[in-house]
Amino acid sequence: MIIDLKGRKAIVTGSTAGIGRATAEGLARAGASVIVNGRGSERVGQAVNEIRAAIPDVEIAGVAADLSTAKGASTLLAEASDADILVNNVGTAFIRDYRGLDDILAIPDEDWLKLFELNVMSGVRLSRHHLPRMVARGWGRVVFVSSESAVNIPKEMLDYGMTKTAQLAVSRGLAEAVAGTGVTVNAVLPGPTRSEILGTFMAKQAEENEITLEQAEQGFLQGLRPTSLIQRFATTDEVANLIVYACSEQASATTGAALRVDGGVVRYLA
Questions:
Q1: Any residues with CB less than 8 A from the CB of 244 and at least 6 apart, and which?
Q2: Three-class secondary structure of residue 265 per DSSP
Q3: pLDDT tens per residue across span 161-192
Q4: Tens digits of residue pLDDT in 247-264
Q5: DSSP per residue, the chain
Q6: Which residues are the active-site residues?
C-alpha cells in the first residue's frame, strides 16, 4: 500500500517528541505539509529542523502554543487556520503509585481539570474550527490519539483514563455529525509505548532499581498490563503507522472507530 498525501495540509499537536513526532514524520514522508506543535519554541524549532534534515523536500513549519488553554488554541489557529488533516495528539498523564482508594480520593481538582483541559478540550477546540472547513471542501481527516486506558481504566491513573474515554465519546459524536460529507473522525488507542512520558518514567524506575530499561518495562507489563500479547512496549513508529493510515485516502470507509494499537492489552475482540 502506498499512501500519498501530496497536497494535503496536516496539523499534529504535541509533536516535538513521542507519538506526535513519529506521526508528523510519517505524514511528511507520505507527502503532506506538516505543522509541528509544542509548548516551547526551542523544542518546536529543533523538531522542525530535525524532520527537515531527515526529509529534505518536506514542507514543514512549527507553532509554539500551550493547548491546555483557549488562548493557546487561538495562537495555533492564527498560524495554522487551514488543514486537511488534524491529529489531536497532545496530552499528558500523572503516573502515581496506587495502594488503594485513598490514593484516588486524594487526586486534587486541579489535576482532574488540568488533564481535561489539555487531553480533551485541546482537541475539541481545534476540531470545532477545522471540521466545518473540511466539510465545505468535502474531504478531511481528524484523529484523536486516545489510549487503551480509555477502555481498560487504570486505577493508578484514573483521571487520565477519564480523559481518554472522553476522547472516544467526542470522536464518535463528531464522526456522526459529519456523516456523508467525505470527512472521517477516528480515535487511535495505543497501549504501553516508548513515548516521552512513559519512557522517562521507565528510565527512572530502571535507575532507582538498578535494572535495565527492558527489565523495568517487563516489570510494568507484568504488574500493570499482564494481558499484553506482544509482551513488550510498542515503538512510536508502530503507533504512528496506524495514525497515518487513518489519515489516508485508503481509510475513507473507516470513521467513528476506535482503532487499537495496544499490543493486545484489551481483552475483547471488537
A1: 3, 23, 26, 27, 30
A2: coil
A3: 999 999 999 999 999 999 999 999 999 999 99
A4: 999 999 999 999 999 999
A5: -----TT-EEEESS-SSHHHHHHHHHHHHTT-EEEEEESSHHHHHHHHHHHHHHSTT--EEEEE--TTSHHHHHHHHHH----SEEEE-----------SHHHHHT--HHHHHHHIIIIIIHHHHHHHHHHHHHHHHT-EEEEEE--GGGTS--GGGHHHHHHHHHHHHHHHHHHHHTTTTTEEEEEEEE-SB--HHHHHHHHHHHHHHT--HHHHHHHHHHHH-TT-SS-SPBPHHHHHHHHHHHTSGGGTT--S-EEEESTT-S----
A6: 160
Beta carbons of 164 and 93 less than 8 angstroms apart: no
CA distances to 82, 116, 171, 189, 211 from 163, in Å? 26, 6, 12, 13, 32
pTM of the model: 0.95
Size of the chain, expressed as the number of residues it contains = 270
**Cα 160 from Cα 153, distance rounded (Å):** 9
**What are the tens digits of pLDDT across the range 62-84?**
999 999 999 999 999 999 999 99
Find out whether 140 and 85 touch, Cβ atoms under 8 Å.
Answer: yes
Read off the amino acid at residue 253: A
